[in-house]
Amino acid sequence: SSGINAEYGEAGYAKTGQTRAHLLLAFTLGVKEVIIAVNKMDTTTPEYSEKRFDEIKGEVSAYLKKIGYQVPKIPFIPISGFRGDNMCPPVKGEPEPPNNMPWFKGTTVKTEPKRKKKEN
Question: Which of 1, 42, 79, 108 shows a CA-CA span of 20 to 30 A to 102?
Fold first, then answer.
């Protein structure tokens, strides 16, 4: 997966930024499926801005298409790593996480528990 910072002026997505370089490198190495996480949605103005998410999605989609990815198949997920928004599904028996992006109807980033290493 690749992460994009939702703050304006984010250097990682600039023409010489790491996000573009990582996506191009991944495609060149044969990675045909990616997930794009748009991070720091809690820092947009206003917070959790659907408009800002759509701007980023449009810019990144154009670049992904240019390098050869099948854009309609790529999920874009707005997240806040700091606050945990859309980072994982609710845990049974724990309170529901806040829904700061009710406009987003997609999936969340899912994590698996770490597996125990086999002992030799």
Answer: 1
